[in-house]
Amino acid sequence: MFYQGSLFGTLVPEFDESFAELQRLDLDATTWVDLAPGWLTGADQIYDQLVALLPFRQRTGVRMFDQIVDEPRLSAWWRLESGEPEPMPILHGMRLLLAERYDEPFDSIGFNLYRDGDDSVAWHGDRHRHVVTNPVIAIVSVGSPRPLRLRPRGGGTSLSWSLGNGDLFVMGGACQHEWEHTVPKVRVTHGPRMSITFRSV
């Protein structure tokens, strides 16, 4: 999938170990998100290599709004328990640094590819909230920016961030229990976006 990248995306891939640009927003008394714009430089190269390396597939038989449909995005997974190294060495460094900062093992990486404006994911909280209390989820977005929105569970005023080009976005506290997030369909997009999502499963 062709992506016309940004100037910063062509730099040597590296991530900001100091988290110098990171800012925290408290959504309520128990929920927070962190945002570090451009945390990963050289994000276009990471995007291109992951598209070439990963066995992306479309999940079928997904329940959405009381219907069974094909998921409107492509996904791939890496898990520590597989015994295989991360798909790229830089992902290993990112995972260990994020694990140290957020005191999480981050033993799983999910890769979600939104090919165009028709690809999306509906409002949801991550499923492992059912087995993990207050899970922390760290997302690094590469490719063209797309909106990610959060709202209180069950509805309400939503917040929106445009994420891509190496942005780091972290959801913590009760975010998966008390809030929902979505990547909505959009009419206009300048290219595909991939989310690299670190979880503790």
- Total number of beta strands: 15
Please give the order of strands in the largest beta sheet.
Answer: 2-3-13-10-15-8-7
In angstroms, what is the radius of gyration?
Answer: 16 Å
CATH fold node name: Jelly Rolls
Taken from the alpha-carbon principal axes, the silhouette is globular
CATH architecture: Sandwich
Helix-strand makeup class = mainly beta
CATH H-level superfamily: Alpha-ketoglutarate-dependent dioxygenase AlkB-like
Distance from first to last alpha carbon: 30 Å
How many separate domains make up the residues?
Answer: 1
Beta content: 35-45%
Largest sheet: 7 strands, antiparallel
Total DSSP helices: 3
Average pLDDT confidence is 92
Low-confidence region ranges: none
Instruction: Give helix % range.
Output: 10-25%
CATH C-level category: Mainly Beta
Q: What is the string of helix and strand elements?
A: EEEEHEEEHEEEEEEHEE
What does this structure look like?
By secondary structure, the chain is mainly beta. The chain has a single domain, classed as Jelly Rolls (Sandwich), CATH 2.60.120. 14% of the residues lie in helices and 38% in strands. It has three helices and 15 strands. The chain has a seven-stranded antiparallel sheet. The longest helix has 14 residues. The two termini are 30 Å apart. 34% of the residues are buried. The mean pLDDT is 92.
Indicate the topology.
Layout: E1 14-15, E2 23-28, E3 31-36, E4 40-41, H1 43-53, E5 62-64, E6 67-69, E7 74-79, H2 89-102, E8 108-114, E9 121-124, E10 137-143, E11 146-152, E12 159-163, E13 167-173, H3 175-178, E14 179-183, E15 193-199
